[in-house]
Amino acid sequence: MDITGDSDDNVLKEFWINKKTSQEIMDFATKLVKGVSGKVWEIDTIVSEHSEHWDLNRMAAIDRNILRLAAYEILFRNDIPPKVTINEAVDLAHKYSDINSSKFINGILDKLINI
């Protein structure tokens, strides 16, 4: 969605084609995607305020979107412990980005816990 500008409905529909997973996982993932999509401007504003000297558009797309997802969970989902969210975000950065990204993401998300 970030790169193509496509709607969350279209992206989710295409993503779930030929995926074999439980309805529970699909529902949870869909809630997260739609939640981020519905609050992306608010999330981007908050993340920008806490990422010193870094404009979101200058961040790698994967880092920006890991931050968006984790920020959504921290700020708007009371059912997910913030420390779990940060751990998962750092793990995603380790897996899909570089070592510096995981430290950067961890630093920003730590700041969001105290909002």
The helix fraction, in percent, is over 70%
- The amount of beta strand, in percent, is under 5%
How many runs of DSSP E, i.e. beta strands? 0
The tally of structural domains comes to 2
Low-confidence segments = none
Q: Number of DSSP helices?
A: 6
Q: What is the average per-residue confidence, as pLDDT, rounded to a whole number?
A: 94
**CATH class annotation of the largest domain:** Mainly Alpha
What is the general shape?
A: globular
The biggest beta sheet is recorded as: none
Strand-pairing-aware structural class: mainly alpha
Radius of gyration: 14 Å
CATH topology of the largest domain: N-utilizing Substance Protein B Homolog, Chain A
Task: Report on the architecture of this protein.
By secondary structure, the chain is an all-alpha fold. Helices cover about 70% and strands about 0% of the residues. It is built from 6 helices and no strands. The protein has helices at about 10-15, 25-40, 40-50, 60-75, 80-95, 100-115. The two termini are about 25 Å apart. The mean pLDDT is about 95.
Summary keywords:
115 residues, mainly alpha, N-utilizing Substance Protein B Homolog, Chain A, 2 domains
